[in-house]
UniProtKB/TrEMBL annotation, chain B:
Membrane topology annotation: Multi-pass membrane protein
Coiled coil location: none
Highest taxon listed in the record's lineage: Bacteria
Main location: membrane
Keywords from the UniProt entry: Cell membrane, Membrane, Transmembrane, Transmembrane helix
Compartment(s) where it occurs, according to its Swiss-Prot or TrEMBL record: Cell membrane
GO annotations of cellular component type: plasma membrane
Transmembrane feature ranges: 7-26, 85-105, 112-131, 158-176, 209-235, 247-272, 281-301
Name of the protein described by the UniProt record: Branched-chain amino acid ABC transporter permease
GO molecular function, one term: branched-chain amino acid transmembrane transporter activity
Amino acid sequence: MERGPNQMLPTGRVEMTQKLITSRRSLLKGAAAGGLLTASPLVSRFASAQSSAPIKIGFQQHSTGIGAAYGRWYGRTTDAATKAINDAGGINGRPVEIIAEDDGTDPKRGAEVVEKFANQHGADVAFGTLFSHVVYGSAPAAGEQKIPYFVVSEGHHVASGKLNRYTLQPGITDVKSQVQAMAPYVSENLGKKVTMIFPDFAFGHDHRDFFTAAIAAQGGEVLEHIAIPPTETSFTKYFPKIPRDTEVLYHVMVGPAVLTFVKELGEFFGPSSPEIFGFIDSLEAVDLGSPGLEFLEGTYFWEGNPRYAQPDQTSFDRNFRAAVGVDDNGASVSDPSDVSTYSHMFGCWETLHVIKAGMEAADYQGPQDRQKLIEAVEAMSDMAESDAHPQGPKVFNGKTHQVFGRQYISRVENGKLTRVHSTSVEDTLYPDEVDYTTMAF
Amino acid sequence: MSPSARSFLLHLGVIAGLFVLCFTLSDYHQGNLARIMVLATYAIGYNVLFGYTGLLSLGHAMFFAAGMYGLGLAMQYGGMSPVPAFAVGILTAAVLSVVVGVLALRTIGVAFMIVTLMFAQSVFLIILYFGTWTRGDEGFVIPQAARQVLGMDLTDPLIRYLAALLLFSSALLITARMMQVRFGRVLIAVRENEERTQMLGYDVFRHKFLAVLISGSISGAAGAAYGLLFGYVGATFASVQYSIFPLLWVLLGGAGTTIGPLVGAVFMFYLIDYSSGFTNAYMLIAGLALVLLVLFARAGIMGEVRRRWAPWLP
């Protein structure tokens, strides 16, 4: 699907998008591309480029399916980043055009969409995938079509070496580094005896494996692993399995049942619960004021990017919120009940800025320069906290195609998340598991 | 010209047409058609059971996934090359078909639908449960380097297309021939009137069992081919929606017609592909198309063609 500038968002949110002058296909296709562009106010900005044809970025969006809430905010962030990049002169003097296609959060459709970007739309790169199974399903198509595929997924798939040289994750950290970086704070401040509750599929297994190893390295231990089958809708029967000497309950439930999970957990423990630590993935796009979530008061969460503006908020975060249309509570400025996926969506913003930096470093002119683009991104290392990287400073590992960055721990206080700890980038590092640079294109 | 000669020419024409399209289509549509032929093979497998035998399964994704995981796990952990791994995929689906056939065929009608649905859900959960090896919902990638057969690179678009065509043609010709011989005619008799078929002395259970076995094996071959040609193996393909898809393709294309599954798969693929360019509610459009078809062409596209213009259509 190719969206018009005001087409994507529901009525009432037009103010967030009507300023967006993202160069859409509808605006630029065919003969209109040259004529209209020449006549537009953008002419002076893009006139110095060798070609005024847009850089086409295929946006693999979860518009429907289980990832739709994420997809909606990934879309808004992508539009905002595109506007920011175009306002600053585009990439190599050329405007950026986003071509969005819904993958239905489905790996089969995801692969089809990547092929469509490469062969139908003539996209320069593909970008934006969040759900890991869609990344896995689509990455082979990216490798075969030889189209750079920038995912925003936080899965460990890229850094594990299971994909290919065309797949990169330079805008968001992976789950292994996130989980690993939590263990020191948990063991020093919350307790060393942990019980883990996680969904019984790959996402949950990643948490199980990575955190169990990480807490052991801190001198702690996981007393019990409680895997919840994905079809489960009630959780009370699992709670008696929690050992009595548990000091910390680690949860990472996702999906629509999370509200029931929290409510039943609260009913089970009452006022005398162990410390509770969770991943905000459970509650992305969910209002913390939702009925049943009162029990979360005083509990801790990993956040990829603090949802609520903190007292020491940087100008970069302030600018990012303003550009995307997010208020200080992490919700849409036009609808306070429309809560963002703030811990993840910055990845779209940062990835697009990495693509811009990579294309400029490679003097990217067209698909013939795709390999140069990948090599340019592989050559990247430090990424300073800035308007291009509002979440925090990062280090990109060109060998593993994975970026590493600061993580945050927040506590629910008065119904809001207050940051209580920031990790260093070094806390998130782990030994390389692959060297993609040795693989042939 | 006799109906069987017409039938032969039709199938030959379809295969020849698909072969020619390989060299005339754009890269994008060539890639799409390769994928569609694999999915149409899956639908052909489904059609054997639903279209010809009259058994409505709501769990065929288990056979597709069995073939896919049979191949994928054999390559991933067994280090097998694609050809024997493909055979393992088909064998896995065949074994599952035997188990499902023996147990599910004790039921009929709605109960059969529910039992097949439950079996499929069990297979889906088993894949998730053994996530250490299957990688559960995430699935795993079959590396490009491993997808080579007899020096041919199955990731090359042309080779992949021809491989998909070979698979589709084999399934099409096997089922077309099957429907011309006594075995296939008994299946149709079972569909039309099971009691009468039994009264005439035919072993209905044996025929239905063999239909499940053939249907499941063809679906499994499609699943194995999908994993091999497109390089991904994942639990999504065992989920409920992938049991519904072949039902939709067959209903759209024409249940009980040999080329209906292909027509249905093409129609549905491009309906979604084009409508998603206009709206996110593309599944609503697909649903609307299905409702219209049920209202105005209950026998599906090719079924309607057969009813109106070509009664000889196989």
